[in-house]
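ARCHIVE CARD
CATEGORY: sequence design from structure
SOURCE FIELD: tokenized fold
FIELD CONTENT:
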């Protein structure tokens, strides 16, 4: 008798996300929620939780026992362990119903000579067998025919008529109704329902029978709404099989009481993805003592979280889009961060409307007061009313003690404390520290705190919290999918963004300037000795050398060579001796190594310049030599200025996306050529176009003494611009006689030697 149902939810998200090229986070990967349904006792409504699942899920009834088990437990006056009753009803087979059984429920029945109950159990097991076969093909020839179970129906009818106990008579009637449903006899269903249930008590068995009767009732909208409201075991099936034909106006027209009106609005609400405040208010006005109203408020909070938190914290659009609402727009548009903030702020207006509703209810008439009080706190935080929120939290802490709910309130408290500060003055206050330490395993919580600090210009503490949370990323089989965070950097109006982040290092690499990262490094260079700071800064301190390396790289991107050299040099000789390719870290790969000297060796080009100064190539040594050669080249007294400008140009060319030393600027060489100018990297244009290489090749040209070397400089300037081997417009225009010689790489050495 255990029920399983494959429940396919509504298609709430765009299929374009599923079938797009490559991996792109969507749905539950990006949906942000702090007010988790798991904190509250509504597991029987699990299938109606607000989520973005596209393809359904297996549903098994979540309560420990069905109502039928509890019914029998009360029948035997609780003299039999409920587990044995459950085993008998849902596990034992027909052949197990014997006086020799070890099952204590059966022992009780045989001992007390309750033969009519034993007979009922035997019939119930026979019904299960009958319901499992509809066609007979004994010789397995593929020639099936419907089994005639009319004699069995006649037997059931005789048992109903003969049974003197109304308790068992109703159970026999339900067995017959269910058997009639599985064997295609709708007329018998209605007859039995009208005779044995329509006018009787409305217990669980009534709603089970009503469910099967609804399949042959052309106007069952009110019935299925009532089933959802009152039958834990049938609420999902009532929605799954009937929601397509449910009509709100028709159902309301046939409602016979305020309670039925409330049930109808509840049924219409359970998978509604647009704002549902109007329906919540209708439910409250007609039946405020409603458990489903409490659940629907929880669901509404989760929806608002998606609309506010998802764009606010992660820079993604809400995970579920729908029409007929103020922020619905074309999903293909790339929104700027400012646009996302505007959308988030508009949804805070709706949160204020829901907060007004929550504040207006009579709490003496509410079923789950703790949920409503917790929702009030959540909404106050959403609407940025931090002072009142903190006051409500104080009152909540005195009134309620449920561990899970209290944990959620604690997190909101910490977020309020952090958020209730001026930009530029935000710190991690003492009263928030114990809460943070208590919930260090909650990455989403730490990320939220980090973002609030980041928005208030406290980048060191922000990155410390986000980095600490990132330590959970490797926990693949833990709560990664429910607790991890993926987010985008600030979206600029003309930038094609790195698609997503799930590690703080990549985020710092992509988004922040050298001056901003310098603030983080300065913090790491201070004395961090109190227990709290050592804990939350543990990951940043562990990565300090890599972050310093990143800082130097950012200075290179900004062409601030002196600062880059000073930063790289601060790492010490040991770092460069043991880890001169910082990208190796834990995963060595030749792809990331400096395999050529950027001053003398060009990618895809056979060496044509004698290497006068050999050195181990690292970021530090390249930077030092770049400074050295620029100083020599920029000195008017230098005789070989053209030579040194040429070497400098080679280095800048090597540091582009097509060079052999791209590692000087990037931690990954790949780039999307179709995204246009990516403003998120300050040197993106330089990385793609090699403007500095062009500049210094031209300075080499201007200081060159021979025509052949001048021609070579123009050829390299053209190449740095287009990275094309055969199209050299400046060379062709100025030195057409040398064009054919320099159209390939064979004569580069001769032209270089012709410098003097």
């Amino acid at each position: 008798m255990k029920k399983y149902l494959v429940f396919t939810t509504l298609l709430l998200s765009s299929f374009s996300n599923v079938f797009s090229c490559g991996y792109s986070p969507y749905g539950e990967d990006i949906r942000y929620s702090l007010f988790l349904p798991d904190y509250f006792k509504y597991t029987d409504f699990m299938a109606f939780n607000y989520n973005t699942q596209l393809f359904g899920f297996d549903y098994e009834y979540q309560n420990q026992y069905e109502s039928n088990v509890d019914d029998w437990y009360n029948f035997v006056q609780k003299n039999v362990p409920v587990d044995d009753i459950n085993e008998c009803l849902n596990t034992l087979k027909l052949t197990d119903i014997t006086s020799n059984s070890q099952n204590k429920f059966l022992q009780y029945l045989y001992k007390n000579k309750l033969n009519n109950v034993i007979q009922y159990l035997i019939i119930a097991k026979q019904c299960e067998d009958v319901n499992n076969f509809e066609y007979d093909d004994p010789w397995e020839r593929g020639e099936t025919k419907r089994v005639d179970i009319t004699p069995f129906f006649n037997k059931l009818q005789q048992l109903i008529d003969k049974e003197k106990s109304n308790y068992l008579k109703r159970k026999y009637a339900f067995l017959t109704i269910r058997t009639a449903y599985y064997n295609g006899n709708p007329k018998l269903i209605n007859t039995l329902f009208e005779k044995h249930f329509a006018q009787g008590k409305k217990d669980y068995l009534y709603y089970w029978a009503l469910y099967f009767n609804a399949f042959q009732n052309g106007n069952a909208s009110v019935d299925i709404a009532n089933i959802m409201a009152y039958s834990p075991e049938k609420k999902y099936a009532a929605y799954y099989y009937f929601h397509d034909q449910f009509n709100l106006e028709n159902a309301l027209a046939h409602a016979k009481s305020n309670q039925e009106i409330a049930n109808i609005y509840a049924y219409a609400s359970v998978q509604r993805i647009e704002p549902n405040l109007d329906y919540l208010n209708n439910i409250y006005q007609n039946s405020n003592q409603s458990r489903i109203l409490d659940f629907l408020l929880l669901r509404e909070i989760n929806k608002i979280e998606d609309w506010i938190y998802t764009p606010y914290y992660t820079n993604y659009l809400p995970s579920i889009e729908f029409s007929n609402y103020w922020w619905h727009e074309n999903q293909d548009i790339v929104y700027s961060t400012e646009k996302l903030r505007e959308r988030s702020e508009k949804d805070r207006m709706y949160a204020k409307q829901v907060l007004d509703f929550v504040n207006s209810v009579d709490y003496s008439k509410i079923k789950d007061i703790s949920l409503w009080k917790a929702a009030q706190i959540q909404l106050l935080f959403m609407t940025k009313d931090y002072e009142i929120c903190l006051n409500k939290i104080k009152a909540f802490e005195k009134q309620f003690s449920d561990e899970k709910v209290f944990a959620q309130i604690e997190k909101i408290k910490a977020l309020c404390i952090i958020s209730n500060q001026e930009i530029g003055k935000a710190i991690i206050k003492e009263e928030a520290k114990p809460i943070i330490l208590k919930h260090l395993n909650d990455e989403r919580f730490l990320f939220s705190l980090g973002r609030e600090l980041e928005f208030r210009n406290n980048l060191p503490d922000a990155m410390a919290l986000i980095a600490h949370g990132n330590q959970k990323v490797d926990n693949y089989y833990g709560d990664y999918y429910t607790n991890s965070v993926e987010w985008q950097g600030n979206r600029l109006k003309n930038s094609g963004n790195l698609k997503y982040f799930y590690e703080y290092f990549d985020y710092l690499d992509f988004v922040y300037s050298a001056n901003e990262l310098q603030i983080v490094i300065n913090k790491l260079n201070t004395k961090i000795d109190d227990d709290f700071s050592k804990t939350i800064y543990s990951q940043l301190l562990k990565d300090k050398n890599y972050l310093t390396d990143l800082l130097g790289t950012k200075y290179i991107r900004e062409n601030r060579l002196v600062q880059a050299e000073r930063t790289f040099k601060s790492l010490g000789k040991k770092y460069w001796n043991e880890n001169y390719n910082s990208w190796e870290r834990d995963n060595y790969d030749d792809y990331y190594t400096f395999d050529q000297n950027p001053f003398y060796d060009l990618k895809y080009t056979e060496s044509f310049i004698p290497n006068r100064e050999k050195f181990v190539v690292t970021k530090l040594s390249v930077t030092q030599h770049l400074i050295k050669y620029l100083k020599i080249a920029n000195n008017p007294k230098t005789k070989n200025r053209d030579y040194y400008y040429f070497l400098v140009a080679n280095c800048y060319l090597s540091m582009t996306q097509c060079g052999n030393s791209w590692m000087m600027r990037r931690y990954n060489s790949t780039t999307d050529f179709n995204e246009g100018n990516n403003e998120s990297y300050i040197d993106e244009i330089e990385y793609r176009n090699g403007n500095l290489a062009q500049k210094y090749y031209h300075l080499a040209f201007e200081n060159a003494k021979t025509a052949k070397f001048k021609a070579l400089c123009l050829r390299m300037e053209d190449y740095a611009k287009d990275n094309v081997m055969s199209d050299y417009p400046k060379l062709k225009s100025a030195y057409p006689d040398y064009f054919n010689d320099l159209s390939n790489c064979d004569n580069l050495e001769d032209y270089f030697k012709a410098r003097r």
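CARD ANNOTATION: The CA atoms of residues 439 and 445 lie 8 Å apart. The first helix runs from residue 15 to 18.
SHELF: design records, drawer C
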